[in-house]
Amino acid sequence: MFARFIANFTPEQATVHDTEVIVVGTGIAGLYTALKIAEYADVVILCKKGLTESNTNRAQGGIAAAIAEGDSPDLHREDTLMAGAGLNSLTAVDVLVHDGPDLVEDLIQLGTQFDKEGEDDHLALTKEGAHSRRRILHANGDATGAEIVRALAAQVRQNPRITVIENAFAIDLITAENGSCKGLLYEHEGALRYIRSKATVLATGGAGRMYRYTTNPDVTTADGFAMAYRAGAQLQDLEFIQFHPTVLVYPGAPRFLISEAVRGEGAVLRNAAGERFMPAYHALEELAPRDIVARAIVSEIEKTKSTYVYLDITHQPPELIKSRFPTIYAFCLSYGLDMTTDWIPVAPAQHYVMGGVKTDLYGETNVRRLFACGEVSCTGVHGANRLASNSLSEAIVFGKRIAERVQAFLDEPCEHIGLPTVPTRYPSPVEMIEDRKLHLQKVMVRYVGVKRTKESLERALAEMGRLAPMLSHAYSKPSEWEFINLLTAAMLTAQAALLREESRGGHYRNDFPKQDEQWLKHIVFQHGIGVIEEGC
Protein backbone atom coordinates (compact mmCIF):
# COMPACT_ATOMS: atom_id res chain seq x y z
CA MET A 1 0.00 0.00 0.00
CA PHE A 2 2.74 2.52 0.93
CA ALA A 3 4.98 3.30 -2.04
CA ARG A 4 8.68 3.73 -1.26
CA PHE A 5 8.78 7.08 -3.09
CA ILE A 6 5.96 9.57 -3.62
CA ALA A 7 7.44 11.31 -6.68
CA ASN A 8 8.31 9.97 -10.10
CA PHE A 9 11.93 10.55 -10.96
CA THR A 10 14.81 9.12 -12.95
CA PRO A 11 18.48 9.38 -12.00
CA GLU A 12 19.01 11.80 -14.88
CA GLN A 13 16.24 14.17 -13.81
CA ALA A 14 17.65 15.55 -10.59
CA THR A 15 20.52 17.96 -10.07
CA VAL A 16 23.02 16.40 -7.65
CA HIS A 17 25.05 18.26 -5.02
CA ASP A 18 26.93 17.24 -1.90
CA THR A 19 27.39 18.42 1.67
CA GLU A 20 28.66 16.86 4.86
CA VAL A 21 25.41 17.13 6.86
CA ILE A 22 21.82 17.97 5.96
CA VAL A 23 19.40 19.42 8.52
CA VAL A 24 15.75 19.51 7.45
CA GLY A 25 13.72 22.05 9.41
CA THR A 26 14.21 25.42 11.07
CA GLY A 27 12.61 25.38 14.49
CA ILE A 28 14.76 25.34 17.61
CA ALA A 29 15.74 21.71 16.89
CA GLY A 30 16.99 22.39 13.37
CA LEU A 31 18.69 25.72 14.04
CA TYR A 32 20.44 24.69 17.25
CA THR A 33 21.56 21.31 15.89
CA ALA A 34 22.89 22.95 12.73
CA LEU A 35 24.90 25.46 14.77
CA LYS A 36 26.44 22.71 16.91
CA ILE A 37 27.34 20.60 13.86
CA ALA A 38 28.74 23.64 12.04
CA GLU A 39 31.46 23.84 14.68
CA TYR A 40 33.22 21.07 12.74
CA ALA A 41 31.33 20.40 9.48
CA ASP A 42 29.58 22.01 6.53
CA VAL A 43 25.79 22.00 6.91
CA VAL A 44 22.92 22.60 4.51
CA ILE A 45 19.62 23.60 6.11
CA LEU A 46 16.50 22.94 4.06
CA CYS A 47 13.59 25.23 4.96
CA LYS A 48 10.11 24.33 3.80
CA LYS A 49 9.27 28.04 3.81
CA GLY A 50 11.38 30.80 5.35
CA LEU A 51 14.16 30.40 7.90
CA THR A 52 11.98 31.51 10.81
CA GLU A 53 8.72 29.73 9.90
CA SER A 54 8.23 26.94 12.44
CA ASN A 55 6.24 25.76 15.42
CA THR A 56 8.95 27.12 17.72
CA ASN A 57 8.22 30.61 16.45
CA ARG A 58 4.75 30.30 17.99
CA ALA A 59 5.85 28.86 21.34
CA GLN A 60 4.55 31.13 24.08
CA GLY A 61 5.11 29.55 27.47
CA GLY A 62 8.85 29.00 27.61
CA ILE A 63 11.59 26.48 28.18
CA ALA A 64 11.86 24.29 31.28
CA ALA A 65 15.11 23.95 33.24
CA ALA A 66 15.84 23.40 36.93
CA ILE A 67 17.94 26.50 37.59
CA ALA A 68 16.16 28.11 40.55
CA GLU A 69 17.12 27.86 44.19
CA GLY A 70 14.92 25.17 45.70
CA ASP A 71 14.58 23.34 42.39
CA SER A 72 16.67 20.42 41.14
CA PRO A 73 17.02 17.99 38.22
CA ASP A 74 15.49 15.32 40.46
CA LEU A 75 12.34 17.39 40.98
CA HIS A 76 12.15 18.15 37.26
CA ARG A 77 12.53 14.42 36.64
CA GLU A 78 9.68 13.57 39.02
CA ASP A 79 7.34 16.02 37.32
CA THR A 80 8.25 14.75 33.85
CA LEU A 81 7.63 11.14 34.87
CA MET A 82 4.33 11.99 36.53
CA ALA A 83 3.06 13.64 33.36
CA GLY A 84 4.39 10.83 31.16
CA ALA A 85 2.17 8.23 32.86
CA GLY A 86 4.67 5.39 33.03
CA LEU A 87 5.95 5.34 29.45
CA ASN A 88 8.93 7.69 29.69
CA SER A 89 12.43 6.44 29.01
CA LEU A 90 14.10 6.94 32.40
CA THR A 91 17.54 7.39 30.85
CA ALA A 92 16.27 9.93 28.33
CA VAL A 93 14.56 11.93 31.09
CA ASP A 94 17.77 11.89 33.13
CA VAL A 95 19.67 13.27 30.16
CA LEU A 96 17.08 16.02 29.69
CA VAL A 97 16.92 17.27 33.27
CA HIS A 98 20.66 17.16 33.91
CA ASP A 99 21.88 18.61 30.60
CA GLY A 100 19.12 21.18 30.19
CA PRO A 101 20.35 23.94 32.55
CA ASP A 102 23.79 24.24 30.92
CA LEU A 103 22.29 24.33 27.43
CA VAL A 104 19.81 27.04 28.41
CA GLU A 105 22.89 29.03 29.35
CA ASP A 106 24.26 28.22 25.90
CA LEU A 107 21.10 29.72 24.35
CA ILE A 108 21.79 32.88 26.31
CA GLN A 109 25.37 32.93 25.03
CA LEU A 110 23.98 32.61 21.50
CA GLY A 111 21.97 35.77 22.00
CA THR A 112 18.61 34.69 23.45
CA GLN A 113 17.30 37.38 25.77
CA PHE A 114 15.12 35.77 28.41
CA ASP A 115 13.03 37.97 30.68
CA LYS A 116 14.59 39.13 33.93
CA GLU A 117 13.19 40.63 37.12
CA GLY A 118 14.13 41.93 40.56
CA GLU A 119 16.76 44.33 41.74
CA ASP A 120 19.49 41.83 40.93
CA ASP A 121 18.11 41.33 37.40
CA HIS A 122 17.81 37.55 37.77
CA LEU A 123 16.07 35.32 35.23
CA ALA A 124 12.29 35.45 35.61
CA LEU A 125 10.66 32.06 36.06
CA THR A 126 7.02 31.03 35.84
CA LYS A 127 5.08 27.87 36.59
CA GLU A 128 2.99 25.73 34.26
CA GLY A 129 0.76 22.70 34.55
CA ALA A 130 2.16 19.65 36.41
CA HIS A 131 5.39 21.48 37.38
CA SER A 132 6.06 21.49 41.11
CA ARG A 133 8.35 24.53 40.90
CA ARG A 134 8.66 27.76 38.95
CA ARG A 135 11.21 26.68 36.33
CA ILE A 136 9.92 28.08 33.02
CA LEU A 137 12.16 30.70 31.43
CA HIS A 138 10.31 33.03 29.07
CA ALA A 139 11.06 35.93 26.73
CA ASN A 140 9.10 39.09 25.89
CA GLY A 141 6.41 37.83 28.25
CA ASP A 142 4.72 35.25 26.05
CA ALA A 143 6.88 35.21 22.90
CA THR A 144 9.65 32.85 24.01
CA GLY A 145 9.81 30.81 20.83
CA ALA A 146 10.03 33.85 18.59
CA GLU A 147 12.94 35.20 20.63
CA ILE A 148 14.83 31.90 20.52
CA VAL A 149 14.29 31.64 16.75
CA ARG A 150 15.42 35.26 16.30
CA ALA A 151 18.66 34.63 18.15
CA LEU A 152 19.47 31.29 16.53
CA ALA A 153 18.52 32.42 13.03
CA ALA A 154 20.86 35.41 13.38
CA GLN A 155 23.70 33.04 14.29
CA VAL A 156 22.85 30.73 11.39
CA ARG A 157 22.80 33.55 8.85
CA GLN A 158 26.29 34.70 9.75
CA ASN A 159 27.84 31.23 10.00
CA PRO A 160 30.05 30.56 6.94
CA ARG A 161 29.72 26.80 7.30
CA ILE A 162 25.92 26.83 7.02
CA THR A 163 24.06 27.13 3.71
CA VAL A 164 20.35 27.88 3.96
CA ILE A 165 17.99 26.84 1.17
CA GLU A 166 14.54 28.35 1.67
CA ASN A 167 11.27 27.23 0.05
CA ALA A 168 12.64 23.71 -0.41
CA PHE A 169 10.27 20.75 -0.06
CA ALA A 170 11.96 17.59 1.23
CA ILE A 171 10.26 14.70 -0.59
CA ASP A 172 12.00 11.45 0.29
CA LEU A 173 15.13 10.06 1.90
CA ILE A 174 17.57 8.13 -0.29
CA THR A 175 19.03 4.95 1.16
CA ALA A 176 21.71 2.52 -0.01
CA GLU A 177 21.15 -1.22 -0.41
CA ASN A 178 22.41 -1.73 3.14
CA GLY A 179 19.75 0.68 4.41
CA SER A 180 22.13 3.54 5.27
CA CYS A 181 20.77 7.04 4.59
CA LYS A 182 22.69 8.82 1.83
CA GLY A 183 20.75 12.05 1.55
CA LEU A 184 17.40 13.13 0.20
CA LEU A 185 15.37 14.20 -2.80
CA TYR A 186 13.81 17.65 -2.63
CA GLU A 187 12.04 20.17 -4.81
CA HIS A 188 13.29 23.71 -5.16
CA GLU A 189 12.18 26.36 -7.64
CA GLY A 190 10.22 23.80 -9.58
CA ALA A 191 13.13 21.38 -10.06
CA LEU A 192 14.01 18.07 -8.43
CA ARG A 193 17.33 18.01 -6.62
CA TYR A 194 19.28 15.28 -4.85
CA ILE A 195 21.54 16.34 -2.02
CA ARG A 196 23.99 13.70 -0.77
CA SER A 197 25.47 13.73 2.71
CA LYS A 198 27.29 11.76 5.37
CA ALA A 199 24.44 12.35 7.84
CA THR A 200 20.87 13.64 7.65
CA VAL A 201 18.97 15.21 10.54
CA LEU A 202 15.18 15.45 10.44
CA ALA A 203 13.93 18.42 12.46
CA THR A 204 10.70 18.85 10.54
CA GLY A 205 8.37 19.44 13.47
CA GLY A 206 5.00 17.87 14.09
CA ALA A 207 1.87 16.66 12.36
CA GLY A 208 -0.70 19.16 13.60
CA ARG A 209 -2.35 19.58 10.23
CA MET A 210 -3.76 16.06 10.55
CA TYR A 211 -6.46 17.83 12.57
CA ARG A 212 -8.97 20.50 11.63
CA TYR A 213 -8.16 22.46 14.77
CA THR A 214 -4.52 22.82 15.76
CA THR A 215 -2.15 25.39 17.22
CA ASN A 216 0.46 24.39 14.62
CA PRO A 217 1.38 26.41 11.51
CA ASP A 218 0.51 25.30 7.97
CA VAL A 219 3.95 23.69 7.45
CA THR A 220 3.35 20.91 10.02
CA THR A 221 2.13 18.25 7.60
CA ALA A 222 3.91 15.17 9.02
CA ASP A 223 6.58 15.27 6.30
CA GLY A 224 9.38 13.96 8.52
CA PHE A 225 7.23 11.19 10.00
CA ALA A 226 6.16 9.92 6.58
CA MET A 227 9.56 10.32 4.88
CA ALA A 228 11.27 8.39 7.65
CA TYR A 229 8.61 5.68 7.61
CA ARG A 230 8.95 5.13 3.86
CA ALA A 231 12.73 4.85 4.31
CA GLY A 232 12.39 2.09 6.92
CA ALA A 233 12.72 4.10 10.14
CA GLN A 234 10.67 3.03 13.14
CA LEU A 235 7.83 5.24 14.41
CA GLN A 236 6.78 4.95 18.05
CA ASP A 237 3.97 6.18 20.34
CA LEU A 238 1.90 7.87 17.62
CA GLU A 239 -1.35 7.33 19.54
CA PHE A 240 -0.29 9.89 22.14
CA ILE A 241 -1.52 13.24 20.85
CA GLN A 242 -1.47 16.26 23.11
CA PHE A 243 -4.47 18.53 22.81
CA HIS A 244 -3.75 21.91 24.33
CA PRO A 245 -6.65 22.66 26.70
CA THR A 246 -6.95 26.39 26.10
CA VAL A 247 -7.15 27.57 22.50
CA LEU A 248 -9.21 30.63 21.58
CA VAL A 249 -12.64 29.87 20.08
CA TYR A 250 -14.22 33.08 18.82
CA PRO A 251 -16.14 34.06 15.67
CA GLY A 252 -13.81 35.40 13.00
CA ALA A 253 -10.64 34.55 14.93
CA PRO A 254 -8.25 31.72 14.06
CA ARG A 255 -7.56 29.04 16.65
CA PHE A 256 -4.97 30.86 18.77
CA LEU A 257 -3.06 29.32 21.67
CA ILE A 258 -3.70 30.82 25.10
CA SER A 259 -0.54 29.79 26.92
CA GLU A 260 -0.62 27.45 29.90
CA ALA A 261 1.37 30.15 31.66
CA VAL A 262 -1.87 32.14 31.92
CA ARG A 263 -3.17 29.42 34.24
CA GLY A 264 0.27 29.38 35.86
CA GLU A 265 -0.32 33.01 36.81
CA GLY A 266 -3.68 32.21 38.42
CA ALA A 267 -6.32 32.00 35.66
CA VAL A 268 -9.25 29.67 36.35
CA LEU A 269 -11.57 27.74 34.04
CA ARG A 270 -15.32 28.27 34.14
CA ASN A 271 -18.08 26.45 32.27
CA ALA A 272 -20.94 28.05 30.36
CA ALA A 273 -22.80 28.59 33.66
CA GLY A 274 -19.83 30.50 35.07
CA GLU A 275 -18.89 27.73 37.51
CA ARG A 276 -15.27 26.88 38.20
CA PHE A 277 -14.98 23.16 37.50
CA MET A 278 -11.35 21.94 37.64
CA PRO A 279 -11.33 21.28 41.43
CA ALA A 280 -13.83 18.50 40.75
CA TYR A 281 -11.49 16.78 38.29
CA HIS A 282 -7.99 16.89 39.81
CA ALA A 283 -6.15 17.97 42.95
CA LEU A 284 -3.87 20.24 40.89
CA GLU A 285 -6.97 21.98 39.51
CA GLU A 286 -6.13 24.22 36.51
CA LEU A 287 -2.49 23.11 36.68
CA ALA A 288 -3.20 19.42 36.22
CA PRO A 289 -1.48 17.67 33.27
CA ARG A 290 -2.75 18.83 29.91
CA ASP A 291 -4.57 15.62 29.00
CA ILE A 292 -6.65 15.82 32.20
CA VAL A 293 -7.53 19.48 31.71
CA ALA A 294 -8.42 18.90 28.05
CA ARG A 295 -10.76 16.01 28.88
CA ALA A 296 -12.33 17.99 31.72
CA ILE A 297 -13.08 20.84 29.31
CA VAL A 298 -14.61 18.46 26.76
CA SER A 299 -16.76 16.92 29.51
CA GLU A 300 -18.00 20.36 30.60
CA ILE A 301 -18.71 21.32 26.98
CA GLU A 302 -20.76 18.13 26.58
CA LYS A 303 -22.63 18.72 29.86
CA THR A 304 -23.57 22.31 29.04
CA LYS A 305 -24.11 21.72 25.31
CA SER A 306 -21.75 24.57 24.58
CA THR A 307 -18.80 24.82 22.18
CA TYR A 308 -16.31 26.25 24.67
CA VAL A 309 -15.55 27.08 28.29
CA TYR A 310 -14.07 30.29 29.69
CA LEU A 311 -10.60 31.18 30.92
CA ASP A 312 -10.84 33.87 33.60
CA ILE A 313 -7.84 35.90 34.76
CA THR A 314 -9.79 39.10 35.44
CA HIS A 315 -8.98 38.93 39.17
CA GLN A 316 -5.32 39.66 38.47
CA PRO A 317 -3.99 43.25 38.16
CA PRO A 318 -4.33 44.58 34.59
CA GLU A 319 -0.67 45.66 34.64
CA LEU A 320 0.44 42.09 35.34
CA ILE A 321 -1.69 40.68 32.52
CA LYS A 322 -0.50 43.22 29.96
CA SER A 323 3.18 42.94 30.86
CA ARG A 324 3.28 39.15 31.28
CA PHE A 325 1.15 38.29 28.24
CA PRO A 326 1.55 41.16 25.75
CA THR A 327 1.13 38.98 22.64
CA ILE A 328 -1.95 37.14 23.89
CA TYR A 329 -3.47 40.35 25.26
CA ALA A 330 -2.99 42.21 21.98
CA PHE A 331 -4.33 39.33 19.88
CA CYS A 332 -7.47 38.93 21.97
CA LEU A 333 -8.01 42.69 22.05
CA SER A 334 -7.85 42.81 18.25
CA TYR A 335 -11.04 40.72 18.27
CA GLY A 336 -12.73 42.79 20.97
CA LEU A 337 -11.77 40.59 23.94
CA ASP A 338 -10.03 42.31 26.85
CA MET A 339 -8.27 39.78 29.11
CA THR A 340 -8.31 42.24 32.00
CA THR A 341 -12.12 42.39 32.05
CA ASP A 342 -13.46 39.56 29.84
CA TRP A 343 -13.57 35.83 30.20
CA ILE A 344 -11.84 34.26 27.17
CA PRO A 345 -13.73 31.47 25.32
CA VAL A 346 -11.46 28.44 24.88
CA ALA A 347 -11.55 24.77 23.87
CA PRO A 348 -8.91 22.07 23.25
CA ALA A 349 -7.06 21.80 19.92
CA GLN A 350 -4.28 19.52 18.68
CA HIS A 351 -0.94 20.82 19.90
CA TYR A 352 1.84 18.22 19.97
CA VAL A 353 2.69 14.64 19.02
CA MET A 354 4.47 12.77 21.83
CA GLY A 355 5.50 9.99 19.46
CA GLY A 356 7.54 10.15 16.30
CA VAL A 357 10.64 8.72 14.68
CA LYS A 358 12.21 6.45 17.28
CA THR A 359 15.75 7.43 18.28
CA ASP A 360 18.42 6.45 20.76
CA LEU A 361 19.97 8.83 23.29
CA TYR A 362 22.02 10.44 20.52
CA GLY A 363 19.12 11.06 18.19
CA GLU A 364 20.02 8.24 15.80
CA THR A 365 17.29 6.14 14.22
CA ASN A 366 17.44 2.49 13.20
CA VAL A 367 18.36 3.76 9.71
CA ARG A 368 22.10 4.36 9.85
CA ARG A 369 23.20 7.97 9.35
CA LEU A 370 19.63 9.21 9.82
CA PHE A 371 18.85 11.31 12.91
CA ALA A 372 15.73 12.99 14.24
CA CYS A 373 15.39 15.90 16.67
CA GLY A 374 12.53 17.86 18.17
CA GLU A 375 8.86 17.04 17.77
CA VAL A 376 9.42 14.72 14.80
CA SER A 377 11.49 12.45 17.07
CA CYS A 378 10.55 10.06 19.84
CA THR A 379 13.40 10.04 22.34
CA GLY A 380 11.18 8.65 25.11
CA VAL A 381 11.39 11.85 27.16
CA HIS A 382 7.69 12.64 27.02
CA GLY A 383 6.16 9.22 27.55
CA ALA A 384 2.39 9.30 27.12
CA ASN A 385 2.06 13.03 27.81
CA ARG A 386 4.60 15.84 27.45
CA LEU A 387 5.24 18.03 30.48
CA ALA A 388 4.69 21.67 29.56
CA SER A 389 7.76 23.48 28.15
CA ASN A 390 9.87 20.31 27.96
CA SER A 391 9.76 20.37 24.15
CA LEU A 392 12.18 23.27 23.71
CA SER A 393 14.48 21.73 26.32
CA GLU A 394 14.42 18.38 24.53
CA ALA A 395 15.36 20.02 21.23
CA ILE A 396 18.57 21.60 22.50
CA VAL A 397 19.59 18.69 24.74
CA PHE A 398 19.30 16.07 22.03
CA GLY A 399 20.43 18.45 19.28
CA LYS A 400 23.73 18.77 21.13
CA ARG A 401 24.00 14.99 21.44
CA ILE A 402 23.24 14.52 17.75
CA ALA A 403 26.10 16.87 16.94
CA GLU A 404 28.43 14.73 19.07
CA ARG A 405 27.35 11.53 17.32
CA VAL A 406 27.41 12.95 13.78
CA GLN A 407 31.03 13.95 14.21
CA ALA A 408 32.00 10.27 14.38
CA PHE A 409 30.36 9.61 11.02
CA LEU A 410 32.43 12.24 9.26
CA ASP A 411 35.59 10.22 9.89
CA GLU A 412 34.09 7.04 8.46
CA PRO A 413 34.34 6.19 4.76
CA CYS A 414 31.04 7.04 3.06
CA GLU A 415 30.51 6.10 -0.55
CA HIS A 416 28.11 8.48 -2.26
CA ILE A 417 25.52 6.76 -4.41
CA GLY A 418 23.36 7.96 -7.26
CA LEU A 419 19.60 8.09 -7.29
CA PRO A 420 17.99 4.67 -7.49
CA THR A 421 16.08 3.61 -10.54
CA VAL A 422 12.42 3.30 -9.57
CA PRO A 423 9.58 1.79 -11.55
CA THR A 424 7.76 4.46 -13.50
CA ARG A 425 4.31 5.12 -12.10
CA TYR A 426 1.84 7.29 -13.89
CA PRO A 427 1.10 10.42 -11.90
CA SER A 428 -2.29 10.27 -10.28
CA PRO A 429 -4.28 13.42 -11.02
CA VAL A 430 -5.62 14.75 -7.75
CA GLU A 431 -8.67 16.91 -7.99
CA MET A 432 -9.83 19.05 -5.10
CA ILE A 433 -6.83 18.11 -2.94
CA GLU A 434 -7.79 20.71 -0.33
CA ASP A 435 -11.24 19.16 -0.02
CA ARG A 436 -9.70 15.74 0.61
CA LYS A 437 -7.34 17.24 3.17
CA LEU A 438 -10.23 18.96 4.97
CA HIS A 439 -12.17 15.69 5.01
CA LEU A 440 -9.19 13.89 6.57
CA GLN A 441 -8.81 16.62 9.18
CA LYS A 442 -12.49 16.41 10.13
CA VAL A 443 -12.25 12.62 10.42
CA MET A 444 -9.34 12.98 12.82
CA VAL A 445 -11.15 15.54 14.98
CA ARG A 446 -14.35 13.52 15.09
CA TYR A 447 -12.99 10.01 15.53
CA VAL A 448 -9.37 10.28 16.77
CA GLY A 449 -9.75 13.25 19.08
CA VAL A 450 -9.59 13.88 22.82
CA LYS A 451 -11.91 10.93 23.53
CA ARG A 452 -11.85 7.75 21.45
CA THR A 453 -13.67 4.41 21.18
CA LYS A 454 -13.24 1.21 19.21
CA GLU A 455 -16.17 2.23 17.02
CA SER A 456 -14.83 5.74 16.36
CA LEU A 457 -11.36 4.49 15.50
CA GLU A 458 -12.68 1.79 13.19
CA ARG A 459 -14.81 4.44 11.51
CA ALA A 460 -11.73 6.64 11.07
CA LEU A 461 -9.73 3.79 9.52
CA ALA A 462 -12.63 2.93 7.21
CA GLU A 463 -12.82 6.55 6.00
CA MET A 464 -9.04 6.63 5.48
CA GLY A 465 -9.20 3.26 3.75
CA ARG A 466 -11.17 4.88 0.95
CA LEU A 467 -8.22 7.20 0.40
CA ALA A 468 -5.53 4.54 0.87
CA PRO A 469 -5.14 3.66 -2.86
CA MET A 470 -3.65 7.12 -3.28
CA LEU A 471 -0.61 5.99 -1.24
CA SER A 472 0.65 3.83 -4.11
CA HIS A 473 0.70 6.59 -6.74
CA ALA A 474 3.28 9.21 -7.64
CA TYR A 475 2.68 12.94 -7.32
CA SER A 476 4.28 16.13 -8.56
CA LYS A 477 3.12 19.02 -6.35
CA PRO A 478 3.90 20.02 -2.76
CA SER A 479 0.18 20.11 -1.87
CA GLU A 480 -0.13 16.50 -3.06
CA TRP A 481 3.00 15.35 -1.20
CA GLU A 482 1.71 17.03 1.96
CA PHE A 483 -1.60 15.22 1.70
CA ILE A 484 0.07 11.83 1.25
CA ASN A 485 2.28 12.52 4.26
CA LEU A 486 -0.73 13.55 6.37
CA LEU A 487 -2.68 10.47 5.30
CA THR A 488 0.28 8.23 6.15
CA ALA A 489 0.64 9.68 9.64
CA ALA A 490 -3.12 9.74 10.27
CA MET A 491 -3.54 6.07 9.36
CA LEU A 492 -0.70 5.02 11.66
CA THR A 493 -2.03 7.22 14.48
CA ALA A 494 -5.53 5.77 14.25
CA GLN A 495 -4.18 2.22 14.04
CA ALA A 496 -2.02 2.72 17.14
CA ALA A 497 -4.97 4.22 19.02
CA LEU A 498 -7.12 1.23 18.11
CA LEU A 499 -4.47 -1.23 19.26
CA ARG A 500 -3.94 0.40 22.67
CA GLU A 501 -6.92 -0.83 24.68
CA GLU A 502 -6.45 1.40 27.71
CA SER A 503 -6.34 5.10 28.61
CA ARG A 504 -2.98 6.67 29.32
CA GLY A 505 -1.71 10.23 28.96
CA GLY A 506 -2.69 11.77 25.63
CA HIS A 507 -4.63 8.66 24.59
CA TYR A 508 -8.09 8.24 26.12
CA ARG A 509 -10.53 5.46 25.31
CA ASN A 510 -14.11 5.79 26.60
CA ASP A 511 -14.43 2.01 26.28
CA PHE A 512 -11.18 1.40 28.20
CA PRO A 513 -11.08 4.36 30.64
CA LYS A 514 -8.41 2.98 33.00
CA GLN A 515 -4.68 2.41 32.72
CA ASP A 516 -3.74 -1.24 32.25
CA GLU A 517 -0.33 -2.52 33.33
CA GLN A 518 -0.36 -4.91 30.38
CA TRP A 519 0.04 -1.81 28.20
CA LEU A 520 3.25 -0.60 29.83
CA LYS A 521 4.80 -0.98 26.39
CA HIS A 522 5.24 0.90 23.16
CA ILE A 523 3.59 0.43 19.78
CA VAL A 524 6.18 0.71 17.02
CA PHE A 525 5.57 0.73 13.26
CA GLN A 526 8.13 -0.15 10.59
CA HIS A 527 7.45 -0.17 6.86
CA GLY A 528 7.65 -3.69 5.47
CA ILE A 529 7.51 -5.26 8.93
CA GLY A 530 4.31 -3.93 10.46
CA VAL A 531 3.55 -3.51 14.16
CA ILE A 532 6.15 -4.15 16.84
CA GLU A 533 5.33 -4.06 20.55
CA GLU A 534 8.21 -3.19 22.84
CA GLY A 535 8.41 -3.14 26.63
CA CYS A 536 9.40 -0.03 28.55
Q: How would you describe what is shown here?
A:
- This protein has a 5-stranded parallel sheet with strand order 9-3-2-13-20, covered by helices on one side.
- The mean pLDDT is 94.
- By secondary structure, it is an alpha/beta fold.
- The chain starts with 14 loop residues before the first strand and ends with a strand.
- It has 3 domains: 282 residues, FAD/NAD(P)-binding domain; 105 residues, Succinate dehydrogenase/fumarate reductase flavoprotein, catalytic domain (Flavocytochrome C3, Chain A, domain 1); 79 residues, Methane Monooxygenase Hydroxylase, Chain G, domain 1 (Up-down Bundle).
- Helix 1 links the parallel strand 2 and strand 3.
- Pathway: Cofactor biosynthesis; NAD(+) biosynthesis; iminoaspartate from L-aspartate (oxidase route): step 1/1.
- GO terms for molecular function: L-aspartate oxidase activity.
- This is L-aspartate oxidase.
